[in-house]
Specification:
By secondary structure, this protein is an alpha/beta fold. The chain has a single domain (about 15-240), classed as P-loop containing nucleotide triphosphate hydrolases (Rossmann fold), CATH 3.40.50.300. The protein is built from eight helices and ten strands. The chain has helices at about 5-10, 60-65, 90-100, 115-125, 130-145, 160-170, 190-205, 215-220, and strands at about 15-25, 30-45, 50, 75-80, 80-85, 100-105, 175-180, 210, 225-230, 230-240. Helix 4 runs parallel beside helix 6, helix 5 (about 130-145) packs across helix 6 (about 160-170) and helix 6 (about 160-170) runs parallel beside helix 7. It is globular. Bound molecules: adenosine-5'-diphosphate (ADP) and magnesium ion. Magnesium ion binds near residues 59 and 60.
């Protein structure tokens, strides 16, 4: 997107995601850890946001809460206009499955399923008939440029290809946004760049992306870069 398009998008954008004063406290017998404190972040539809911060600063806790994998101690989290506080477990799983795509540092593909079947797994949890699943898997494979690898098992793919299959799995369900935790952390620099370009391409087509990364160069390529220190947002950089 060019500068004018990004500015226009920022002005007309719809809020996709809003955390207001979220706190998360982990309690053990001996200590309390405040993993997030008064954490406030709003992300608009179509944004690509990079999150950086030192180890232990709360990045994974943030992603787990954003991904509805973990509860929070206080505050509010609105996802696409829905207050997640009001939902039961079944509603949370449904929201997670329909709205959120996950990409992990370690790819998290199922080793004894081929690429096609891995991409299909989350679709099977939805009431989607076989032919729609097939269309979606094939489109996702095409978008990541790996149609020819549909029958390959994860062990028969390079790290970069495995991560592209994981990206295909994340987008096959047409999520409202993608949460990526160090998606290039296990890749060499060439493969990392390919995966980043793929994510940028998916973002250009309209999918919101929130990516945790240690790589400052990648963080600078996104529209917005948020820094977390000690469980709080400390700085935000806009890159127009
Ligand atoms: N399940 C848990 N129980 C207790 N403390 C935890 C748990 N998960 C994370 N923490 C603590 O919360 C803080 C934030 O952790 P985390 O979100 O994993 O940080 P990051 O991903 O930025 O490295 C750390 O101090 C960590 O030790
Ligand atoms: Mg972490």
């Amino acid at each position: 997107m060019n500068q004018a398009q990004i500015k226009q998008q920022a002005e007309t954008a719809k809020t996709m995601f809003a955390m207001e004063n979220i706190s998360k406290v982990y309690r053990t017998e001996l200590i309390e850890t405040h993993a997030l404190r008064d954490f406030t972040l709003q992300v608009n539809e179509g944004e690509f946001v990079a999150i950086t911060g030192p180890s232990g600063s709360g990045k994974t806790t943030f992603l787990n809460i954003a991904g509805l994998l973990e509860t929070y101690s206080s505050g509010h989290y609105f996802l696409d206009g829905v207050n997640t506080r009001d939902l039961n477990d079944k509603q949370l799983s449904h929201l997670r499955n329909t709205k959120i795509g996950f990409v992990f540092q370690g790819f998290n593909l199922i080793p004894d399923l081929n690429a096609y079947d891995n991409i299909e797994v989350p679709l099977r949890y939805r009431n989607m008939n076989r032919s729609e699943r097939k269309d979606r898997v094939q489109q996702a494979l095409a978008r990541v440029g790996l149609e020819s690898r549909a029958k390959h098992f994860p062990a028969q793919l390079s790290g970069g290809q495995q991560q592209r299959i994981a990206v295909a799995r994340a987008i096959a369900g047409s999520p409202a946004f993608i949460l990526a935790d160090e998606p290039t952390g296990n890749l060499d620099s060439l493969m990392a760049r390919q995966v980043m370009e793929l994510l940028e391409n998916i973002n250009d087509q309209g999918t919101t992306i929130i990516m945790v990364t240690h790589d400052q160069d990648l963080a600078r390529r996104t529209q917005r870069h948020v820094q977390i220190i000690d469980g709080q947002v400390t700085e935000m950089f806009k890159h127009f």
